[in-house]
Amino acid sequence: MGSSNYRGGSQRLKDLAQQLSIYKPLHPLNDTKNKNPNEDPTIRDTSDKLFPEEFDSNTESATNPIANQSERLRSNRAAVLICIFEGENGDLRVILTKRSSTLSSHSGDVSLPGGKTEKGDVDDIETALREAKEEIGLDPSLVNVVTVLQPFITKRGMTVVPVMGILYDKQAFKPVPNAAEVEAIFEAPLEMFLKVFLCQMRQC
């Protein structure tokens, strides 16, 4: 799945990639029986603002993590890139963006790179990588995609597929924000996301 480019990668990142590669979404990739996300308990409903504003639209959502193109276009699907790299202090970090203050909706919000499926996208991985390149200038060849996580459903019914990738050579990434969409590119500790997830699981 994706590139196997390990240039400049630490052993820690390689081990993480190996561990993540065995993850399988709860919903089978080829199961198309459940068309209504409200009837599918394996897909979570979320209002997390780490999803770009353009995801907010009324739609009937699909449930396949990696669906064929015609199904994904009908379902009004989107994908985001969770790009992990190793920080200067050896901690694992995630690339985030601050949305442009000129946008009409959710201006200034923090977001993962990503966006809606377009006609030429082969799968959710291609959607996430294409959007990341358009928004922040991240060359897809630098990202080793290791897994696709369980889809999220926004309050308005958009299926959002998180694609997880590893950036082994952070120095090779030269951020170029798309001024029309992105005001700033920054990073945050992966640990922060894990703490939020555990808190949600425990209903903090």
UniProtKB/TrEMBL annotation:
Keywords: Hydrolase, Magnesium, Manganese, Metal-binding. GO terms for cellular component: cytoplasm. Its cofactor is Mn(2+); Mg(2+). Pfam families: NUDIX. It comes from Ilex paraguariensis. InterPro entries: CoAse (IPR045121), NUDIX_hydrolase-like_dom_sf (IPR015797), NUDIX_hydrolase_dom (IPR000086). This is Nudix hydrolase domain-containing protein. Residues 75-204 form the Nudix hydrolase domain.
